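Tutorial sheet, problem 5. The two components below are modelled jointly, 915 residues in total.
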Amino acid sequence: MGILDSKVPSGPLAEKWTKHKNKINLVNPANKRNIDIIVVGTGLAGGSAAATLAELGYNVKTFCYQDSPRRAHSIAAQGGINAAKNYQGDGDSAYRLFYDTIKGGDYRSREANVHRLAEESANIIDQCVAQGVPFARDYGGLLDNRSFGGVLVSRTFYAKGQTGQQLLLGAYSAMNRQINRGKIKPYNRHEMMDMVLVDGKARGIIARNLVTGEIERHSAHAVVLATGGYGNVFFLSTNAMGSNVMAAWRAHRRGAFFANPCFTQIHPTCIPVSGDHQSKLTLMSESLRNDGRIWVPKRIEDAQAIREGKLKPTQLKEEDRDYYLERRYPAFGNLVPRDVASRAAKERCDAGFGVNKTGEAVYLDFASAVQRYGKEEALTRGMKNADSKTITQLGKDIIEAKYGNLFQMYEKIVDENPYETPMMIYPAVHYTMGGLWVDYNLQTTIEGCYCAGEANFSDHGANRLGASALMQGLADGYFVLPYTIGDYLSNDIRTGAISTDSPEFEYAEKEVKDRINKLMSAKGQHSVDYYHKKLGKIMWDKCGMARNAQGLEEAIVEISALRADFWENVKIPGGTDGMNAELEKAGRVADFLELGELFAKDALTRQESCGGHFREEYQTEEGEALRDDENFKFVSAWEYKGEPKDAVLHKEDLVYENIELKTRSYK
Amino acid sequence: MKLNLKIWRQKDANTKGEMVDYTINGVEGDMSFLEMLDVLNEDLINKGKEPVQFDHDCREGICGSCSLQINGEPHGPDRLVTTCQLHMRKFNDGDTIVIEPFRATAFPVIKDLVVDRTAFDRIQQAGGYISVNTSGNTVDANATPIEKDKADDSFYAATCIGCGACVAACKNASAMLFTSAKVSQFALLPQGRVEATERVENMVRQMDLEGFGNCTNTGACEVECPKGISLENIARMNREYLSATVKG
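Model answer (structure tokens):
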């Protein structure tokens, strides 16, 4: 096992978590009052963890770069949250959710973590409903469900296309209750710049007040990082503009191993890029694939005519359309997992069948759903001979009730009415499965430093199934971390308050200040965005939806050179003693310039294709991912040694005791 | 497109601000309003000047970070959109656009176009939650059926993004629409009824303490709300408040 001890409890899979909780050391309520915990990031994972830890009695300090925890990027999640409730009676169970998640992740996640996630999933729904999260309900007053990619049951709970918003506001209201009680002290518009270790343990952070520019020291008995993913390394992604890797990366520099950085999810249903000015990409929820059918023209000349504006998609006859997902994957059809759907879209567009000006878009068409729903609704209302106009209108109303906000969002951005003409979509960078390595307790390789939600690597393997990100964030925050952290803190009941006057704090603060001064003194010619966009282009071209050895080797050289140029030639106007967005961005891009190189290095090492990592050299004759379980059934965990080129690889072998590894097929 | 911009520049909360004129070329219709400002900022940085500071994050209309008073309207001339979803195709070549921060005593300016909206957080902290433990030992989620219409109304109230456009649109800088949306969400659900009296009293008290003005039913808030939060919520909050004070 080497230095990576996963601490997975022994015994039968379904009993591991219960047994573990029963054996964990507890902290007496009177002692919890003397223990401080820092939570960095206040999205679903951080917000729920902060609220629960405060409720248990710990003193919690939360940090976020936004002006309010309510703006964390979890708020943008659209489609839903999975839970094995089996309310639909369609055969769902915790085991099936576990199985789908492991299979969806291409057998590159840890069995025990995933089973625990499936077990806690049902609990999350109960909790959120009790908190007043208004999930969608049917006319009987019961909760409604829908399906997501990669599964054959309806287990996704939702609130229109704003599920993430409602769940985040639920966690935020739980936080507010604790803030009102004085148990959480919120530090908003603050950014964690470094982690402070005392005797090898995480004992605090150095933060920058983004309003005053002041560098602050904050101590605690443990530090929880719940800071999301690093998809913005690509510049263009579906992440919020401020999403960054700084906290996780600075912890990595202090000794936390970074796992599977190359596992990045490309989401198949995003609004295509429209031009060079574009700052970010907008996702259209995967739930749309429940009712939308994906197609491109069958004939290349039709695709060309559409691109030139000579032909409208609605003019193309049914038999002239290629519903390529339904053709290739009859069992799952349009609901294949994200990695499969993304690669299939790229394959069609690369072959010349793309439908927008740049040739990088496919159609997502609701016309047949409008007819199907319209007919059903007409019959339900007793209209046996409804005309086609009425049927279409009734159908559109149903679609609007289900996905209205997404259709509105599309129309605002693209300036086309998706009720009348099919949406255009293309894959875009969305979620990062890699992150800080954690053991079963969610502790990183730094003692006392924990990591939850998207920021850790543990539950999704090489690919995440839809509606599972919200599930992991809340399971980690509400139900896992608050238990497991107690085991560590039970040894801290006599420690007392941690001083911020120690040499360790002084040293870390000085390093942070030196780094800022170095950035400010570069006085070069190029803006931070100039470097970020260059990095993003390298990442997308050479570490994107498909990778090969040659491209990855080039990427490593190019990123390293770009990083050197950045430190020489970046230009940051303004000062350090107040709000300065350019300085904030510079610190983040400096980290992305290191992470990007490690990303490419990790992708180069993994000589197989799995999930979101598709190496062109390793594919079947039909163009599907070719996994190599014999040699790559492990988590790669990188140890920081200065430059990314010097990072040392450690392997955690993945042990499958309960699942037989199979070729992933959705045909 | 070539545009003339008049932008409010203010170094910090304690410094006097002023309108500054800028000219920008090559603006395309597909750009969002914030992307247009990105282009302006890139140009300013290249000239060695300080870029214009503005709040933004998700850029897909849901985080509520972006603000901006554009030609006198919060989030600009388009209906039901945030500034990040406002596209430049709504403007014409040669237009002059006035860009200011949201104006309200309770939203002090931090820098340029960035204002402090933490008053909204404090209103929520005063009672915008259901007092349930986060321990997960609750009843099954389907144990209490909720009428679809009630659940939907609660959801519509809950979709408020807390951007503050309602306050910026109101001549009295009132926070009634925001506060009432929060009150409504919980008032409509059986889970939230138990502490409804305390909730509405505490939240209204905090709203007044923060320095927001009174509601005089002009309805500008509803017109400018990017999420279409309805005035009905204000009526519902008034009923809740009245019944709370009667119960005393």
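Marking note: Chain A touches chain B through 78 residues (CB under 8 Å). Full credit if you identified this.
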